[in-house]
């Protein structure tokens, strides 16, 4: 008596399903890249501005410096007025929390919450 061998492999339907899911994940990833790049730019800028504050710059000067550097790096979500600037143990600490809405397709959007801080420098 001979046993039947089961076919192995991937069906066309499963290829379409997996391909569709991968495409959707890639779409979200590509749409989120500008928001993440802006976050890294904000993190870099507030570290430089905090160093200026440690050097004696006033809060108003630090806010203006953030605005100037933000224009260069194309930061549009956060302004100098959004920064929480304080002294902690003789060092300037800058925090900013913000949300960024990223359109995905038609009426579907991705909302990302960011928090940048200088406490770890």
UniProtKB/TrEMBL annotation:
Checking Pfam families in the record gives: DUF4845
Superkingdom, taxonomy of origin: Bacteria
Can you say what this protein is called? DUF4845 domain-containing protein
What is the source species? Aromatoleum tolulyticum
Output the lineage of the source organism. Answer: Bacteria, Pseudomonadati, Pseudomonadota, Betaproteobacteria, Rhodocyclales
């Amino acid at each position: 008596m001979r046993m039947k061998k089961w076919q192995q492999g991937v069906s066309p339907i499963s290829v379409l399903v997996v391909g569709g899911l991968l495409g959707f994940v890639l779409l979200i990833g590509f749409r989120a890249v500008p928001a993440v790049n802006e976050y890294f730019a904000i993190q870099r800028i507030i570290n430089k501005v905090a160093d200026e504050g440690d050097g004696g710059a006033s809060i108003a000067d630090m806010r203006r410096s953030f605005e100037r550097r933000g224009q260069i790096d194309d930061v549009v979500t956060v302004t100098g007025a959004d920064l929480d600037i304080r002294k902690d143990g003789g060092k300037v600490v800058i925090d900013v929390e913000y949300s960024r809405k990223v359109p995905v397709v038609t009426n579907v959007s991705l909302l990302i919450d960011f928090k940048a801080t200088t406490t770890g420098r």
